[in-house]
Specification:
alpha+beta; ISAs1_transpos; Transposase IS4-like domain-containing protein
């Protein structure tokens, strides 16, 4: 089971029997209104993870959902991450947000998702 399929299944079962951390935040200012949801799951919770041997030292998988609204346009974005840090969703959400803030301040940097 891949990471995306795992997260879809976990949401369908309302995370029953799965250890996870969750954070939710909304940010509004001179930028579009952005609502973010972050789930962090220990990698051991993901059964049959493809290429598990290549992920040595990694401890958690992460899903971030972003919902943006500017004027009459709404956007939705889902990103997946893997990390070697064993931290809760609140701390990781701040780190991810800081990273995106740096990239957004540089218009020539193109977004990249794994």
């Amino acid at each position: 089971m891949g990471v995306e399929a795992f997260f879809k299944a976990a949401q369908t079962t309302q995370w029953e029997g799965i250890e996870f951390s969750y954070d939710e935040s909304t940010e509004a200012g001179h930028h579009p209104i952005e609502h973010r949801q972050v789930w962090v799951v220990p990698i051991t919770q993901v059964p049959d993870l493809p290429h598990r041997s290549k992920w040595k030292g990694k401890t958690c998988v992460v899903m971030v959902k972003r919902f943006g609204q500017l004027w009459n346009k709404t956007t939705t974005e889902v990103c997946f991450y893997i990390t070697s840090d064993r931290v809760d969703a609140t701390i990781l959400a701040r780190a991810i947000r800081s990273h995106w803030g740096i990239e957004h301040s540089r218009p020539w940097v193109e977004r990249c998702h794994i």
